[in-house]
Amino acid sequence: MGVRKWHLARAKHHKDVSDYLLPVHEDWAMVALFYSAMHLVHSSLADEMTLNKDERHPRKHSSIEPGARGTNQMVHSLYSPIAVSYMSLMELSHRTRYDIAQLGPMTVPGATQQWQSIQRFCTNLNDGRPWIPSQAQ
User: Fold this and answer.
1) In whole angstroms, what is the distance from residue 7 CA to residue 26 CA?
2) Which CATH superfamily includes the segment(s) 2-132?
C-alpha cells in the first residue's frame, strides 16, 4: 500500500504545482505536469506482480544497461496505450528545460489531454488490483 500511495500523492502534488504555475509560467507548468504523469505510471508499476523489484521501481527514465529497463522502456513494453502521450509529455518537459527556443507555442490543452489519458489508464489499472504485500510496509 505504501509505495503506490506515495506515488499517487506525488502525482497529485506535481499536478497541483502545474495548475498553480499555469496562469503565469505555462512552460514550467508542463514540467510539473510530466512529473505528475511519471508518478502516475510509477504508481502502477509499483504493483505489477510479474516484475522484479528493480523494474517496479525504475530509477532512470531510460536505461542502456543490458537487460535493464527504465521508465520509458517499461511504458513502451507494458503500457503501450499511453506510450505516445507519456513520451510526448516527457519531450515537452525536456524541451521546456533545455531547448525552449525550439519549442514554439505551448500546447497546454493537448498536454492536459495527454495527462488525463495517462491518469485514466493508471487509475483503471490500479483500481481493484492488489497491493504487493511486501510494499505494504
Assistant:
1) 24
2) Nucleotidyltransferases  domain 2 (1.20.120.330)
